[in-house]
Amino acid sequence: MYLITMDALNKGMSHYVFVVYRNVIATIALGPFAFFLERKVRPKMTVRIFSEIMAVAFVEIILDQCFTFLGMKYTSASFASAVMNSVPSITFVLAIIFRLESMNLKELGCLAKVIGTAVSLGGAFLMALYKGPVVNIADSSASHVGRPDNVNDPSGSHWLIGACFLLIGCAGFSAFYILQVSLSTCTILTCHSLAVKCCFINQI
To answer: Cα Rg for the chain, rounded, in angstroms?
Structure first.
């Protein structure tokens, strides 16, 4: 997915347009499942449900997808894929903040989560703040295909901005998981309907 997205961005497609196309395809693909499988169990649209859908759509589409693709545009597909692996760690931190996860450092499992979170976030911030030298495996024109224009930027300012955008995208993706736990509309019976409504709203 990251390679296809990077190829589209390198060919001049706007990341906003790419997000719209992605949500249009998702709406078309999930629409029939939501209509036929959940039409009898779907809750009626109320102000509360609409606001919850808007909140989920904002953090998943705007914060996650838009900032992730924008950060990928400033960095690279491999860098974005590596940084997005910190989503579980950020989700764990947010779950602790919102008291969705209990902490007991005397338990081995909880201690492993804390150590894993520290290592994952430390690696993500290290990749964001430190930009090493470019390694040319083969001195040919093929090695430059798909490389961002700013990869040789000596100041690394674009790379740092892109890394910050990717971290914002990670936070948005994590918040998407947290919101699904607390939202009353997200049940096993209405998951397709919620996804379709979020995708449709973000197309607008």
So the answer is: 20
Reduced 3-state DSSP string for 121-178: HHHHHHHHHCCCCCCCCCCCHHHHCCCCCCCCCCCCHHHHHHHHHHHHHHHHHHHHHH
What are the Cα distances from residue 135, in Å, to 72, 78, 138, 140? 19, 14, 9, 13
Cα 180 from Cα 186, distance rounded (Å) = 6
Cα dihedral: 19, 171, 68, 52 (round 10): 0
Alpha-carbon distance of 168 to 65, in angstroms, equals 10
Q: How far is CA 103 from CA 76, 119, 147, in A?
A: 36, 18, 43
User: What pTM, to 2 d.p., does this model score?
Assistant: 0.77
pLDDT tens digits, one per residue of 87-103: 988 998 888 888 888 88
Distance separating alpha carbons of residues 40 and 116, to the nearest angstrom: 43
